[in-house]
Amino acid sequence: MQSQLAKPILRHAIEMSQRAPYWHCRLLFQLAQIHALEKDMVSAMSLLSVGADYAAAARSEYTRLLFLLSKGMLALIERNIEMVSECMGQAGNLIDHFTGSPAHKESLKVFFLVLQVCHYLMAGQVKSVKPVLKQLQQSIQTITQIHTEDEPPMSSNPVDQFHWLPKEHMCVLVYLVTVMHSMQAGYMDKAQKYTDKALMQIEKLKMLDTHPLLLTFQLMLLEHIIMCRLIMGHKSIAIQEIFQACHVCQQQPRLFSMHSAQIHTLIGLYAMSMNCMEAAEAQFKTALEHSSGEGELAGFINLNLAIVYLRMNRQSDLHRLAEVIDPDTLHSHSHSMKAAAFFVKGLQSFFEANYVDAKRFLRETLKMANAEDVNRLTSCSLVLLGHIFLSLGNNQEAMNLVTPAMQLAGKIPDVHVQLWASSLLKDLYRLIGDSVNEAEGYRMHTSFSQSLLRDHFQSSQLSEHGLIQKQLNVHLPQVWAKEVAAAVITLLLTDEYSIQQKLL
């Protein structure tokens, strides 16, 4: 796109179209989009404000709201919280009093609620978002029940002739944000269920419509379900889905620039789960380059890179990451990302046998994770604290921590934490002389271990496994959309089994 040539033409057209309301609004949207793609959010939001005022003067509350919500979306991407609050507050009041067609009103509500859900998820506030997500799910059900034939005649106002998204695309989007929430909260089965529904809907739509947005939705769903597979111990499926994500990128060149950092991050996570630490390091470093070293994704990568260095006992490299992974200096607005940073600090202190600091950091993780129902961080922290108390000889306290960790990991389900916890439980039962529960702990540990080993071997035999040694042919990201995709990736993925093997 030759934006430098397009912008002066669009500005001239905007000046000339004052008496053609539909085209005037359309040109404002077009120019705002170009500025947004160039990351000139100030200019983009200024144009959207002009559009909102023009639509209000043209007596179109519907299109006025589309401009306002679009401005709120850009403010959200920029993390301009004051502007987000201003736009969302004004839009919320206008939607409540909207008297246009029911279909238009519900469409605006879905747009509004999607932004609210994304706002909470970007802030890592998994528990706080639940009532808003429920409203969104109810609103999309209302939309699917509204039939065109029951609608009143279309407005004669030419400024009203805009659509945010087709109803079918809105349904996929609601599935997507539900998957995002499920991943952050640690409900892997639920994430898998809604991913399957969304991907099925996308395949149906692609037979009728090749809109590029569908590929973006498909890629973001794959990014989340891949992490789900890794947590559940399904590495062989995960690497095949990573390969599928690469194939989706090939269908649209712009997706390369938007998602290259995420793809390299996923390959790095897979390599970690396969104990290929050098490959994981290389993939994470490439992902950092493609993310420009900024944003939530960079913070997530650095935390996982720190775990790689811990497991490789590379203290000097870990020291160089100290500032970017420190919870007090972490460049992140996410509650759960900061909680994850405390976990990594606790893990580091544990490796150094500094149990006092380890307990302090992990208790902070627990406090933050419990506050927002970030279940996976809770289970990881509980089992690591239990391991610390076992190392200190406090068997009862260890039992009090490992038992709920095991129960919570089973609900997620997180096979790595279950493996770690079952190993600790069989040792604890042996120490207290409970042979029956010791035998059960041994049985569970053997079952989890054999399952992971089978999957590990199967993964290593796949041709797709070779991706961990490759650098993808992608361009550096140039658009803001990657930040939206990255902002919801806040689950800290570790291979606890390897940590346990190293320490026991």
From TrEMBL:
Cellular compartments annotated: Nucleus, Nucleoplasm
Keyword entries, A-Z: Cell cycle, Cell division, Chromosome partition, Mitosis, Nucleus
Keyword Nucleus applies: yes
Domain of life: Eukaryota
Pfam families: Cohesin_load (PF10345)
Gene3D superfamilies registered for this protein in UniProt: Tetratricopeptide repeat domain (1.25.40.10)
One cellular component term from this protein's GO annotations in UniProt: nucleoplasm
GO biological process: cell division; chromosome segregation; mitotic sister chromatid cohesion
Ribosomal protein found in the keyword field: no
PANTHER family reported in the protein's UniProt record: MAU2 CHROMATID COHESION FACTOR HOMOLOG
Family in the record: Belongs to the SCC4/mau-2 family.
Descriptive protein name: MAU2 chromatid cohesion factor homolog
Organism the protein comes from: Pomacea canaliculata
Classification lineage: Eukaryota, Metazoa, Spiralia, Lophotrochozoa, Mollusca
